[in-house]
Design brief:
With 74 residues, this protein is α+β, with helices and mostly antiparallel strands. The protein has helices at 8-15, 19-27, 46-55; strands spanning 5-6, 35-38, 41-45. A three-stranded antiparallel beta sheet has the order 1-3-2.
């Protein structure tokens, strides 16, 4: 059986991330890179997305914090 090829909308729905977040994570090497199927079209292999999901660290229940900007109060 052939691996399904997913567009960014399908991938975003599966992993519950926005398009910009997916692309930022790809740039940092934290998300699978897509295959270029035409000059303006990319697709992800469903098995790679599923594998990525299975290998993601589980949420510890703590909220992520962002570093404070210089001069920020609080």
């Amino acid at each position: 059986m052939a691996d399904r090829m997913l567009d960014v909308k399908q991938v975003a729905g599966l992993v519950n991330l926005s398009y910009p977040t997916i692309y930022r994570m790809m740039q940092r090497g934290e998300f699978p890179k897509p295959l270029q199927v035409s000059p303006r079209n990319v697709r992800w292999l469903e098995t790679e997305i599923t594998e990525w999901q299975q290998n993601c660290p589980r949420n510890s229940g703590q909220r992520a914090t962002r570093p404070r900007a210089t001069g920020e109060l609080g």
